[in-house]
Amino acid sequence: MANVAVIGAQWGDEGKGKIVDWLAERADVVVRFQGGHNAGHTLVVGDKVYKLSLLPSGIVRGTPSVIGNGVVLDPWHLKSEIEKLRGQGVDVTPDTLKIADTCTLILPLHGELDGLREDASGTGKIGTTRRGIGPAYEDKVGRRAIRVCDLAHLDDLGPQLDRLTAHHDALRAGFGVAPIDRAALLDQLREIAGFVLPYAQPVWRMLHEARARGRRILFEGAQGVLLDIDHGTYPFVTSSNTVAGTAAAGTGLGPNAVGFVLGIAKAYTTRVGSGPFPTEQDNEIGERLGTRGHEFGTVTGRKRRCGWFDSVLVRQSAAVSGITGIALTKIDVLDGLDEVSICTGYRLGDQVLDYYPSNASDQKSVEPIYETMAGWQESTAGARSWAELPAQAIKYIRRIEELIQCPVALVSTSPEREDTILVRDPFAD
Ligand code: GDP
Ligand code: IMO
Ligand code: MG
Asked: Is residue 96 domain-shared with residue 240, that is, in the same domain?
């Protein structure tokens, strides 16, 4: 019996939320380990739609949920997300949700800085979610962050606040923005502390105990490997490591705690924000994928860019993240196409590459090499077994497995929780 880490194998929005919710039925605890409320995970249960950004997707089923130390946490967003979920009838209490007291806080100044930088970048902008994720991680690594545990000791924060404000006031001056109002910031923190602290604890202890008792831990990744700060399309990436290895460091469990790594990949490709995208279809095909797949960002509402499945990128994601099996989602979006294409390599000048080059200008210049096969006219939507899939769709899935050198463990055929085909049980591995 394995613990399972769910991670995105493309540029995010692969359907991690749906798969985590589905697996959470059999998990004893669900834990987020990186990112913050830049994530947008959608769960569809009957006629209810839940959109989670910061809370682990297990919370909707009532599975004990944990926000690990690797997450950057906006306490005001936490409050509003909890209140919104309560409004939808989901119970969130310190019994069902635990937050690592070592999480770095996202402060209002981080969101402000994120926005100022984006606005000043013109055509070079990253296209961030403007939620302060990058600036908060910078402060964490720069050792001037305020953490959840500090909320219980706000009067002792003097020297740390000195470091934080000195750094940010210099940056703000460069943008012509007023320095930080330290008293106002402390007041805001005092006000929110009472809400956050009942959830806070050294969560590594309860995770170790859960592990020692043989409980099943489900690690919920955010974003995707191609947005990873090291392995992604730098600089058009997020500010955390999104690969499965982070599940250990971001929770306080060792690497041997992560068993089956389930990479989530769409049957095509999408990207929101700037950056290279070799198989992008800025044409009728892209429009069709976007319309049928409802490809609009959960967090920002931005239209997602759409294109063909890129087996080079997913093979690379599987390699750098140690993916054991893939959950292939949104196969139904390809229903009714005459032909479907898969990228199998790149041309760069007179070279043919079977990997994605590291340099940003090479990443932009590569020309995809496609393999095209017949599509299928039958519907896959709502299929719950292989037998319900048309032969041509099975052929497409098998070809993807071959190209990415990784088996398909699950296939998802609609947004609805139960419309999922189980091929190989990740927990049983
Ligand atoms: P996440 O960030 O990886 O959790 O993915 P998002 O929730 O941002 O985006 C995935 C979208 O696709 C959501 O609207 C899901 O409800 C939807 N979705 C997930 N799986 C499927 C599927 O198999 N078919 C279809 N049509 N939609 C799906
Ligand atoms: P989920 O978990 C898709 C993208 C942003 C931008 C880049 C940096 O729903 O898959 P950031 O705000 O993190 O500094 O933005 O990363 N991005 C995502 N794209 N899905 C996400 O999360 C994303 N989180 C960040 O659009 O290009
Ligand atoms: Mg999303």
From this structure: yes
Judge if 274 and 145 occupy the same domain. no
Q: Using H for helix, E for strand and C for coil, what is the string for the chain?
A: CCCEEEEECCCCCCCHHHHHHHHHCCCCEEEECCCCCCCCEEEEECCEEEEECCCCHHHHHCCCEEECCCCEECHHHHHHHHHHHHHCCCCCCCCCEEEECCCEECCHHHHHHHHHHHHHCHHHCCCCCCCCHHHHHHHHHCCCCCEHHHHHHHHHCHHHHHHHHHHHHHHHHHCCCCCCCHHHHHHHHHHHHHHHHHHEECHHHHHHHHHHCCCCEEEECCCCHHHCCCCCCCCCCCCCCCCCCHHHHCCCCCHHHCCEEEEEEECCEEECCCCCCCCECCCHHHHHHHHHCCCECCCCCCECEEECEEHHHHHHHHHHHCCCEEEEECHHHHCCCCEEEEEEEEEECCEEECCCCCCHHHHHHCEEEEEEEECCCCCCCCCCCHHHCCHHHHHHHHHHHHHHCCCEEEEECCCECCCEEECCCHHHC
Active-site choice (41, 77, 110, 231)? 41
Among the candidates 260, 283, 302, a domain finishes at 260
Query: What pLDDT, on a 0 to 100 scale, did the predictor assign at position 123?
Result: 86
- Reported as a single tens digit per residue, the pLDDT across 356-370 is 999 999 999 999 999
Query: Who surrounds ion ligand 3 at CB < 5 A?
Result: 13, 40, 298
- Model pLDDT for residues 367-423, shown as the tens digit of each residue: 999 999 999 999 999 999 999 999 999 999 999 999 999 999 999 999 999 999 999
